[in-house]
Amino acid sequence: QLQLVESGGGLVQPGGSLRLSCVVSGSGSRNVAIGWFRQAPGKELEVVSCIAKDDSVSYYLPKGRFAISRDNTKTLVTLQMNSLTPEDTAVYFCAARNLEFNGCTSSRILYATWGQGTQVTVSS
To answer: How far apart are CA 122 and CA 40, in angstroms?
Structure first.
């Protein structure tokens, strides 16, 4: 019964930064692959990044602006977002894969448990 809760969203000016958090709890929370996704107004869900069980990471957006990491407890996953633009405005979700799968994937359907989302708005 895995649970995920996102936080850290808010309003930021273009060029600014935000750090999003995903707290993972429940059975298997210390050994699970976690992805970040986003959905902008009027657009489909888009994959952002993923961290695998072994803490290797994958990025699906242009390199260099976003960074995913996991803390020493293995239950807190963060997404550091820098040099934000208005096109980064979206609801950001974290999601967990089934425990049996080790690696990352860009496919939404392969993530079993989702958080509620946190709103990020980039505007002057």
So the answer is: 11
The DSSP secondary structure of 71-98, one letter per residue, reads -TTSSEEEEEE-S--GGG-EEEEEEEE-
Closest CA to 65 of 118, 120, 111, 116: 120
pLDDT digits (tens, 9 = 90+) for 13-64: 999 999 999 999 998 777 899 999 999 999 999 999 999 999 999 999 976 8
Sign of the alpha-carbon dihedral angle for 55, 25, 48, 109: positive
pLDDT digits (tens, 9 = 90+) for 60-79: 997 689 999 999 888 999 99
pLDDT of residue 82: 96
Q: Which residues pair with 20 in a beta bridge?
A: 79
59 exposed, middle or buried (CB, 10 Å; 0-12, 13-18, 19+)? middle
